[in-house]
Amino acid sequence: MIKKGVTPETFVHNVLINGLSKQGRVPDALRIIYHALERGIRHGIFTYNTLIDGWCRLEQLEYGIKLYTQMGKLDVLPDRGFAPDVVTYCNLIDGFCEKRNLTAGLSIFKLVLKNGVYPDIAVYIVLISMFFKEGRVKNALELFRQVSEVGPKPDTVTMIPRTQ
């Protein structure tokens, strides 16, 4: 664990942050991050993805987006080993899908492509679901056809719907 740059303290923080976020206590989870930053402890993309997912589950996407935009200020930069990844973007797209905001979801998808992140099958499943929820069946079927032809390929994990 330490060889991979994860200290026991970071691991414990992640467990706490994950638990608090799943209980809808994202502000409490953020306090752990800020206290850690004050002590010089840095967290990785897993931690920030957990927080963004927590905000999305609370349907407070403005805070998820704010955290995404602040990641650089919180030492989440490519030159320090990581940047927002496909999970970050998938969480945000899914959050907008749940709020039935297709325009914002597609804007986030454009960021995925612009930032050179390879969208995985989970991103496409969320987008296809979003199109169906918005009654845009032709768009959903066209995207499904494109993904079926050129990948990425679904696996058993990605085909299981997300449960709250």
UniProtKB/TrEMBL annotation:
* Gene3D superfamilies the UniProt entry points to: Tetratricopeptide repeat domain
Q: Which InterPro entries match?
A: PPR_rpt, TPR-like_helical_dom_sf
- Pfam families listed in its UniProt record: PPR, PPR_1, PPR_3
Which UniProt keywords are given for this protein, alphabetically ordered?
Repeat
PPR repeats: which residues? 9-43, 44-78, 85-119, 120-154
Q: Which family does it belong to?
A: Belongs to the PPR family. P subfamily.
**Could you identify this protein by its name?**
Pentatricopeptide repeat-containing protein
Provide the species name: Escallonia rubra
